[in-house]
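Consider this one:
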Amino acid sequence: MPELTLEWQEAGRKKTQTISAGQPSKNPGTVRIGRDPARCDITIANPTVSGLHVEIFFSFEQEKFFLRNLREINPPVVDGRRIIQGEIVLKPDSTIYLGQIIVKVVSYVVDVSPTVFSLPEPFESMSLSLEEPKPKKPSRPTPSYQLQCPSCGRLCYYEWIDIGCRWCGSSLAAAASVFIPPEEEST
């Protein structure tokens, strides 16, 4: 299972946190870091860190961890590069500045070999396959909606909202709904 470990100093104490691909979080598909415990999975209680500062996610397609900036003001600096918008690949020795806090990637493991695991209760009946679900053909054409991934722009089914985009791994929580007009029936 892909995972990375972060390390930083907070109030004179060394803190460590491991992030695994697909781990439960407040924003499925990503792990958010900031000062606000209501919105973040990893909280750093330092006034120079924004309430919701960055998020880290794993892309199974690219087999890499990425850091995405969530702030226009007070952007993070990763490996000496200010990330005003978008995302950047994290490396095994990356250094991340969140305000005045220095966060280091101290461990980085990318093993995407298949792993057998059991799904939590609500997902037991859900089929997770790499094939796109095929909707049943209705007796009459009906309009539908899908989610447009905010990162790669591909259309995703609503059923994937808790799992994330199957192409890039991004969260679909902020995805736009897209109207798909009904197909005309051929006579």
Observations:
- The radius of gyration is 19 Å.
